[in-house]
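Exercise: predict the structure of this protein bound to ribose-5-phosphate.
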Amino acid sequence: MGYTNDRLVLMTGTAHKELAQSISAELGIPVANAHIGRFPDGEIDIKVYDDIRGGDVFVIQPTCPPVNENWIELLLIIDTLRRASAGRVTVVMPYYGYARKDRKDEGRVPISAKVVANTLASVGADRMLTMDMHAAQIQGFFDIPVDHLYAKPVLMAGVKRLGIENPVIVTPDVGGVKMARAWAKAIGADLAIVDKRRISGSEIAVEHVIGNVDGRNVIIVDDMISTGGSISEAAAITRRHGAKKIVLAASHAVFCGPAVQRLDACPADKILVTDTIPRRGDSPKALEVVSVAGLLARAIRNIHRSESVSSLFEEIQ
Ligand code: R5P
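Solution:
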C-alpha cells in the first residue's frame, strides 16, 4: 500500500453502475470520472480522467454475469489505479462470482474461487469488501484484509414490513443451515430443512422436509437464486407439506436460465432479493428488491476512517 491522503474516491466498473450511484448518493461524493469501454475486438479500454494520486479508492464491481467480462474488467481497473499511484485500493465486490467452486470435490477440477482471490491480490488490491459469499471460508483464500458483510439485516427489515406471523425459517439445502439458523435465532422462529439433491447445474431433486411447516407461514432463505431450481422446489415442497404463506428471501439475484419462469410458477407470495446484482430483463411478478447501498456506504466510510465494520453486521436499516 502506498501513501494514502484523506481523500475517499469511489470508482465503478460497468457491472453495476446503478449500485455505485446509490452508494455515491449515500456518501455524498461523486463517482470518479472514467471511461470504460471496449476496443473493436472486444478488449477492454480504460481511462481514468480524475487525479487519484494518493487517494483511498473503493472500486465497486460485483462479478455477476457476464462473470468473466466483469472479472477481467475489475482486474484492469485495479491495474489502472495502481499505475495512477492510488494510495490504497479496496475492491467492493457485493457478489463474488465463482464462489461456489471453492474446493476440489472431485478429480481434475479447478478451485475457481481461489483463482479469483489470487488474481485480485496479484494485480494490486489492498483490501476486499464483499457480502454473503457462498462460503465464508473463502476469506482464507486472501492474504489481504477481507470484510464480509451480511445482507440479512436489510432482507429481514423487508420481511418485517410484510408482517408475517409466527414464521418457520426454511433452508433449501443442508449447506444453508448456518444462515437459516442465524435468521431463526434473530427472530425467535423454528427451523426446517429441505433435503435437496443436485442432479446437474440447473436440475435438482427434493424429497423430504425435516421439521414441521404444516399450517405455518414460511420464510425460505438462501444466499443466491441462480437458475431458481433450489428455492422454487423448496417452495413447492413446503406447500405440499401444508405451508400457508411462503416468502423467499435471497441475497443475490443471479436469475439465469429458467429462473424467472420457475419463480413465477412456484407458490411464493413474495420474493425478496437485494440489489447486489443489477436487474436486467424480466423479473418475477412477486419480486421486491431491497437495497444494500446504505450498508455498503457505511462499510466504505468505516473502512476509510479505520472504524469497526463488524458493528454493521446486525444493523437493521
Ligand atoms: C447452493 O448451495 C446455493 O446456496 C443455492 O441454493 C444455489 O446455488 C442456487 O442455485 P439454483 O437457483 O440454480 O438452484
